[in-house]
Amino acid sequence: MRLATRQRLRLSGGTELSFITAGEASKPAVLLLHGFPSSARTFREVVPELSQAAYVIAPDLPGFGESDVLPAVSFPAFGQAISELLDRLAIGPRYVYLHDWGAPVGFHIAMQAPERVLGLIVQNANAHRTGFGPQWAATQAYWAQPTPENEAAATAHLTFEGTRDQYLANVPPDVAARIPPGGWEEDWRVMNLPGRMDAQRALVADYAHYVARFDAIAEYLARWQPPSLMLWGRHTMHSSISPRSCRGCGLCRGWKPTSSTPATSCSRPHGLPASSAIRRVFA
Fold it and tell me: Is the dihedral of CA 242, 246, 252, 254 positive or negative?
């Protein structure tokens, strides 16, 4: 088995993308897409186990981790960058892991080449309007009226405390005690590099365009019905959906409203990728 290796790729537009690969290229490929505010470091404890059964590709999204900021920041541009990475690595059929900000990127990739998607692994990633709880009110107000005041409210989480909350908010003390501060400290350091904070603000605004594609995503899922493993952190602060309500509204039976995608639900603590559950996908 090939150990995890970090590499850099110069994209056709001139910026560089940092990514990790692990495992044998002859095995099924799985693309791991992290969320805000982290990087491929999210998967540092997951990659060794997954690479025993799959060929793992874990990029730092542009402007995150060690990857450069793109000249024009948007989720479709991120999708194009990761698609170029997959093409350069000659990755054919693949599983796609979607998490948080990685969901718009992953769905862009999946819908561009649906015949290459072996399955989806969805952990704390929203693709339906029922996923918006009251905590999204300020962001939705900004999308409706993009004034400086509304932008300030929608991006109020772009602080050290807000970055730390991505790891610790709503998490019981016994779980929080197992989460080292190095994660959010490194995320905050990276966010303060040149151009990074502007990129984060641009993504908050661009997420509205992703939301506008929810109906198209539902149609994709209904037509192609990719096998799906659905995982939800029970302490997440970003959505009103719990594993129980998810099953009740039909998401775990097929991404409401299509009710067509095979899926399994598994509750996990906030922020901890479920490597054992994911590995069973390749069994």
Answer: negative
Cβ atoms of 39 and 190 closer than 8 Å = yes
Polymer length of the chain: 283
The domains located in the chain, with CATH, are 5-133+213-282 (3.40.50.1820)
Is-contact 105 82, C-beta < 8 A? Answer: yes
Distance separating alpha carbons of residues 32 and 125, to the nearest angstrom: 13
Residue 156 DSSP one-character state: T
Question: CA 153 to CA 138: how far, in whole Å?
Answer: 6
Tokens of 65: 């981790």
pLDDT tens string for the chain (283 positions)?
678 999 999 999 999 999 999 999 999 999 999 999 999 999 999 999 999 999 999 999 999 999 999 999 999 999 999 999 999 999 999 999 999 999 999 999 999 999 999 999 999 899 999 889 899 999 999 999 999 999 999 999 999 999 999 999 988 999 899 999 999 999 999 999 999 999 999 999 999 999 999 999 999 999 999 999 988 766 665 555 554 444 433 334 444 333 333 443 333 334 445 566 676 676 6
Instruction: Give me 250's structure tokens.
Output: 């039909």
Residue from 55, 61, 56 nearest 39 by CA: 61
Q: Rounded to whole angstroms, how far apart are CA atoms 228 and 24? A: 23
Cα separation of the two ends of the chain: 17
